[in-house]
Sequence to fold (114 residues):
Amino acid sequence: MKTILTTVALALLLSSCAHNFMRGTVAMKTDKNTAHVCLGNNDVKIGEKLSFYTNHCIGTASGARDEGGGDVRECHMKVLGTGTVTKLLNSHYSEVKTDGSFKLTEGTLVQKGK
Fold:
């Protein structure tokens, strides 16, 4: 019985941590311009603008080394486009309609617009 309770407790802990790793990303694409994003009702409001990003890296992990012996690689966030929160689904997710200027994919980074 103790093993079952430990297993259930571990499963609950891991599932709650999983959402924290997804926060600020596209969780599910529902059509060409609409997606569910990991920003809930405590993070965004209906009508709020969001920006979509991709991480763009230059250099190669197997290339040159810096003074400390690490790989030389430069990364920066590249803006893909914008969207608007259309619906709050729950405390973890909201629905966003994009401006249609970019290809929407799951895992794309999302942040509140400035």
Q: What stands out?
A: The beta strands are 26-31, 34-37, 49-59, 73-88, 94-98, 109-112.
